[in-house]
Design a protein that fits this description.
mainly alpha, 25 helices
Amino acid sequence: MEKVLLSFCLLLVLGMRISNAESECDAGFLQFFNSTIQFLKGNSQEAAPLLYSGKGPNDLGQYRSCLRSGGNYYVLHNKIQRISNFMGLCVPQQCSGQEIEASLNSLVPDGAPVTFKVNSPEDPELGAGGKFTIFLSLGLIALAVWGSVLDTKYQELERKPFYFEVVHAFAFTNNFRKLFARRQPGTNESKTLNCLNAVRALSMTWVILGHSSTFKTNFALINIEEAPELMQRLWFVLCYSSIFAVDTFFWLGGLLMGYLTLSEVEKRRGKLGVAGWTFVYLHRLLRILPLYMFMMLIYNFFVRRIGSGPLWFQTEIMTQHCDEYWWSNFLFLNNFIPNGRGNRCFGIGWYLANDMQFFWFSPIIIIVYHNLAKWIGWLFKATLVVAGVVISTTLASEYGFTTSIADNRNEQSEDTNFYYIMYTKPYCRYIPYVLGLYCGFVYLRYTKMKSLQPDSHPDQVAYFLINKIRNTKLGAVASFMLGIAFISFFILAQRGSYSHLNQEVWTPAQDALFLGTYRLGYSLGLVMVMMPLLLNRLKLVYSILAAPLWEPFAKLSFACFLVHFAIMIGLFAAEEGSFVFNGTNLFCDWVMANTLSWTAAIPLSLIVEVPFMTLEKMLFSKLKNGKS
């Protein structure tokens, strides 16, 4: 009853404000109040629409019942520092959202850090963009079916139609077989790269776990005041330390770039030329852009228009700033445009921008390592790492950022926002990628050693590392255990800041030093864990990470990454009630998000990603053959 009276009093004050302004909804409010009083007195059996409103912070009330009663349903939304609060309001049909918003904000004292926003539940139409996206999707599905028919009909025939190769690239049946087919590396040594499949798959599930906790804070948490207590629990470190999963992906990208590209450069004796490097860049663009562009269409014109509910307006998180800056994503500059700050169009697109920017500049490191003395190459690496630490430490100190990303001091304004200043910027994140590049260089030297052929590009530093890890009795075990210790330290070191949120647990100098070194520390730990496996040591651990079951997940990881954002935000935004933030619900959300994301990744990968990868290979093969 107390909560009913609280809701009644809030709307009574609201009605009085509107009434004093001689609003047209005055009569409607009086009718709502009278029906509520009659219901509370027991004189009416019909529930009063006013009672369908929320009764307190993050109580959305009864959305459907309000609409059926003939009322207008609005969501009262305010944000105090980083905490979002919502409350459902069931008001007369005569009252507009603008009137209610203006009346509520007139109650706020001047200078108070609170602004009320009233949102109307969305029920958007598909529009021309949505219809085009559906048409394009149906076209791709038709190609997949056609290709599957051709795959069955002409699989064993020598004479095939002239269009067979192009259409067959979309064959769902053939692409499905590829999903579960094991890659056959050209050399025995490169088979050790199979252990990276598990790292890629597990890192993706770690990303989803982190987003399961952070995304939900954008919605109605009925027990939001209990969130700090939840963060104090030991297992919660897995959630906020998921920021390292992205660094793992950067390290993986650097490793493969260093190994594969340096192999090609050495094969051509350093004479890759303009055409060769052009092929390298085009290959990367054509590998990423088709599925990326398709998902941009899905996010902007389809996903936001297929749902409804009290908080469906929060799906704008996915496409914020896209109306103005969608083109910046395809240039991979969305983390700088506009004004060097960046934008939030396709919220997870900052990762692709960073990854591509690292890729743009990695040939410089490869050329330095290949063309100059190897000690210069290693000195160049050390210089880059030190520069990255100095840049991050300086920025963290200048802006007063803290170790905990969730701390209010990291989001005091748009101009001093940790997300824009450090989190999405390549000069604060490139260290894992650089370490990955040099791991690729060391791994290439190892494959040359195993081939028993003279190494035309000897590297004494690489040989020293290989010998210490692979050829000494305890080298591999010591490296692995020390790596686990490094990773654990930099994960657990954050616990104090998250357990005492918005409190000064560390001094500003300690916060700055940690923010300047934690990516380096984690990445060094990752290097020490993975190098023994790549050098064919620790067979038990390797056999687990290189098991065949991980390979399909690794192949689907890019599609899973692109689609999980929409699935998670869509699931939370479609909910018509409030959430309880606890460990059990968080685990259930994580399981559900994983299940749906990996499942949705299958058709996305097989109908969009793999076909265009196949066409790209066909194109480059013809270009190379034509050139030769």
